[in-house]
């Protein structure tokens, strides 16, 4: 029997992590069309609202149902404005390991939202789901993502040479592919000792009755 992640809402001092909802479509599409997202991810460009709706209504539920991962919206607690997404993928239930990634909207960068959301997710995985390893992969030139990994206590395990493709905008506005290295980071339960002090009260975990 395939294990799956539960329907979950994770609250921090400033954020709530919850299942993506169709109301997120416009904000999600806008966020995914950002130049930094285009540069460092494989998100198709341009990213339409139809693509966003497909992710929310088809891809995310299918990934969760198959036990492969979990996609969470990250919203401001007070305004409910979408500030980003956290994604768990390539989950191995036997060894209790998963890969974590995050994207933050352009207007919300520099506020510590990525590290707050990633740390809250890690705390939930280790305490609530009994996971033993979280892995992050950052492109060699993506220093902002690397800073998030370091801030939440990840340790760099090494480099996967020539293992990913980043994108560079040409003078005519088109995007070209460029090979790069991956830096591999890991986070284990013992790495989070004292990490809770970086967040205010993370609150409780609230189950949703339905994912769809």
Outline the structure in words:
Strand 1 (8-11) and strand 2 form a beta hairpin. The protein is globular and about 50 Å long. Residues 198-212 have low confidence and may be disordered. Helix 1 packs across helix 3 (49-65). The protein starts with 7 loop residues before the first strand and ends in a 5-residue tail after the last strand. With 212 residues, it is α+β, with helices and mostly antiparallel strands. Strands 7-8-6-5-4-3-2-1-9 form a nine-stranded mixed beta sheet, with helices on both faces. It contains five helices and nine strands.
Whole-number mean pLDDT: 90
Radius of gyration over all CA atoms, rounded = 17 Å
Helical percent range? 25-40%
Total beta strands? 9
Largest sheet: 9 strands, mixed
Oligomerization status of the protein chains: single chain
Biggest sheet strand order reads 7-8-6-5-4-3-2-1-9
Number of helices: 5
Name the structural class: alpha+beta
Overall form: globular
The span between the termini is 21 Å
Order of helix and strand elements from N to C terminus: EEHHHEEEHEHEEE
Strand percentage, roughly?
25-35%
Question: What keywords describe this structure?
Answer:
single chain, disordered C terminus, 212 residues, 5 helices, 26% helix, nine-stranded mixed β-sheet, alpha+beta
Quick rundown:
The chain has 212 residues and is of the alpha+beta class. The chain has helices at residues 25-32, 35-40, 49-65, 113-128, 143-151; strands at residues 8-11, 15-19, 70-76, 82-92, 97-104, 133-139, 155-169, 175-187, 205-207.
């Amino acid at each position: 029997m395939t294990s799956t992640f539960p329907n979950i809402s994770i609250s921090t001092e400033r954020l709530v992590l919850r299942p993506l909802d169709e109301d997120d479509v416009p904000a999600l599409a806008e966020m995914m069309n950002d130049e930094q997202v285009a540069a460092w991810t494989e998100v198709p460009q341009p990213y339409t609202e139809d693509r966003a709706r497909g992710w929310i209504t088809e891809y995310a539920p299918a990934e969760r149902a198959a036990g492969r991962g979990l996609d969470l919206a990250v919203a401001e607690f007070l305004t409910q404005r979408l500030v980003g997404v956290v994604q768990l993928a390539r989950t191995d239930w036997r060894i209790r390991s998963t890969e974590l990634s995050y994207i933050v909207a352009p207007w919300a960068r520099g506020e510590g939202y990525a590290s707050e959301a990633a740390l809250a997710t890690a705390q939930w995985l280790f305490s609530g789901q009994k996971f033993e390893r979280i892995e992050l992969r950052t492109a060699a030139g993506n220093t902002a993502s690397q800073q998030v990994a370091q801030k939440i206590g990840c340790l760099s395990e090494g480099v996967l040479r020539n293992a990913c493709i980043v994108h560079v905008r040409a003078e005519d506005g088109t995007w070209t592919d460029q090979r790069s290295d991956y830096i591999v980071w890991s986070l284990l339960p013992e790495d989070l000792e004292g990490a809770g002090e970086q967040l205010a009260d993370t609150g409780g975990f609230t189950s949703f009755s339905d994912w769809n």
